[in-house]
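Many introductory courses stop at the sequence. We go one step further.
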Amino acid sequence: MDKTREIELVELCKNGDRLAMGTLVRNYERQVYNAAYRMLGNPDDAADVTQTAFLKAFEGITRFNPKYKFFSWIYRITINEAIDQLNRRGRSEPLGETEPESDQADPGQMAVSGEAGARLQAVIMQLPENHRSVLVLRYYNECNYQQISEILQIPEKTVKSRLFSARQQLKDRLSTLEPHSNG
């Protein structure tokens, strides 16, 4: 969705337009759900966080700064809600059995399914939330460094550093699970 249309929809939302709200939800719902799922590893919790994130976004829509993209704002709310959910339940729980439905394949080396995908998700769930969030945004939501910086409200240099650390931790943990893997 282009920035002009997004701003127009947000302005309509500020005036209580439910159709505009529905349009924003439809445009970002899957991405928000996928981000929540990758942070939480549980489809029911991800659905709850998705719903809560949109409710909070629309309740606080007057605080939205049009200088930023709506998706950056809703992703930030989602990541915060997911972290709150993790804190409430005590770090992480065992991975759910099902993968989220997605219109797009996971990029790069993250494009795995079945048992390998479940192992990868389990390892991602073991990472600290700040490392998990940059991985999710970069590889599952295909955000660039600038977008991640906006969403998480941290400098791009910090994004790069966390991403490097997260990939290293991921690589180290995966290598202990599969000692004969390349990589």
